Amino acid sequence: MSSANRAPLPTIGTRVPAPLAALLAWVLPGLGHWIIGERIRGIIFFVVISVTFWGGIAVGGVRTTITPRENGAWIAAQLCTGTQALAALYWSHHRSVKYKDEVKAAWPASNISVVYAGVAGLLNVLVIIDVLARCDARQHAALSRPPPMTRGKT
């Protein structure tokens, strides 16, 4: 990708602490990359993870997909998508209280939906690791640069 296609890096981009970038990546997938200046990468991560997560919910319904008692370890993977999973968990609980007789999705759709939402969370774990690595690489690159040359002095 040419440098003309990239958004210019903000001055604050190299000063963002890695834990903050990782937390922002959990809060909203891609936000960690956005804050360190990798805007296009952040947008791509946001779209891919959000479409995968909400696509899974669209296949099986929120009550079938986001159910902590029935889905075991998959709920932990789903929660890695951050606030989207928390919103879906709230929505699922609200629907289970309000519509007690609502029919859940049948076998193939229920399994597919749980796996899609879980995979979205696991993808976000990789995104969080990536933003941590990129922050670390930027910090090392900044420390290893030679001091700037001053005019007239050698």
Q: Any overview of this molecule?
A:
With 154 residues, the chain is mainly alpha-helical. It has one domain. It contains eight helices and no strands. Helix 3 runs antiparallel to helix 8 (107-144). The chain is elongated, with a radius of gyration of 20 Å. The model is unreliable at 7-13 (pLDDT under 50).
Describe the structure using short key phrases.
mainly alpha; single chain; 0% strand; 154 residues; elongated; 8 helices
Sketch the topology as an H/E string, one letter per element.
HHHHHHHH
Major β-sheet profile: none
Structural class: mainly alpha
Shape, please? elongated
Short description:
By secondary structure, this protein is mainly alpha-helical. The protein has helices spanning 18-27, 31-35, 39-60, 62-65, 68-71, 73-79, 83-98, 107-144.
Write the layout of secondary structure elements.
Blueprint: H1 18-27, H2 31-35, H3 39-60, H4 62-65, H5 68-71, H6 73-79, H7 83-98, H8 107-144
Helix pairs in contact: 1-8, 3-8, 6-8
